[in-house]
Amino acid sequence: MFRFIIRRLMQIMLTFLLFLALSYVLIEAMPGDFANVFLQDSKLTLEQRNAIRASLGLDRPPQERFFIYMGALLRGDLGISFQYYPRRVIDVIVERAPRTLMLFISSTVVSFYVGFFAGKVLAWRRGRVLEYVTTVGGVTLYTVFTPWFGLMMIWLFAFTLGWFPIGKFITPSVWRRAPVEANLVFNWMLLTALGISVLIVVWLWLTRRMDGRRRGVARWAGVGALLVAVLAVWLPSGLGRYALNILHHLALPILTLTLISFAGTMLLTRNSMLETLREDYITTARAKGLPDHVIRDKHAARNAMLPVVTSLVFSLAFALSGGVITEGVFSWPGMGEVLLQSAVTQDIPMMMGALIFTGIFALLAHLVADILYAFLDPRIRYA
To answer: What is the pTM of this model?
Structure first.
């Protein structure tokens, strides 16, 4: 396994370099440059526009700019953003990336659990009315036009019913006298969610050998205790109302993305489960008289998880590409919005920084998927 990981890391580095070179060439092939943003200002003379172009390094040949950029990148410098001048690209990524990760990881995990549970139930109860209704509804949501569906969700739940904010990241009136910045509260929320997730996974692993009823009670009790602990920390701190305001803005985008995404996992799980249920070991388990829920969950569902886990990992990796549309509809200030604005204004350092963020995430996701295969399926071994 160790030699496999080293070999894959070397392949990832080579692929990443090729990805950087191709991305830079395509960005440079776009007509014009960032100085065109100032063309509508009639007060600027041609000499002043040329001075702006020279100050940003845009007067140099593209190949020279590429080697200068790669040299700076090897030193860990992503450059200065043109549109957010004088902020560094890495500072903008550190500010915006957690928002995109929180939005898409939350929706992806929720849609995965909903889709996986629904898929295995549909495969187990194949041919019933529930299967046809759920499948048709899921496929309809999965193929819906995302911007239109997002706008309809905003119109129904935010504008008409008033249950959620129409968009943005926070409500300015709530944060007018806040003792801390919204980014700090959001980062604390992200760390809290990460810590709780790790503890829940550890608790589920520790209780895996209990019998069915005791295991269910213990797991629900442990999860409930962790949630109570979180409330006991956040509410007395005085920051609970601000965290709730961010969650209020986050709820509708997560709900929308979950409804759109869960059907893919559901259908993939259903198809994989149907193939698994035809295997001989499932027939053997039934012949032994094992309960249906044991055959379904421990024998069939576990072995049907490989393609589903692959889909989950890759969907997390390409969160930024979906964020361009979703964050635009909900005015969510994340990496997707940054990438869109950078493309419009031709902010080359910011575009490259956003693409680097996406590329690293996607390449590491392939490595994680390969490693997960070995844990989920004992038959898979890497030399």
So the answer is: 0.79
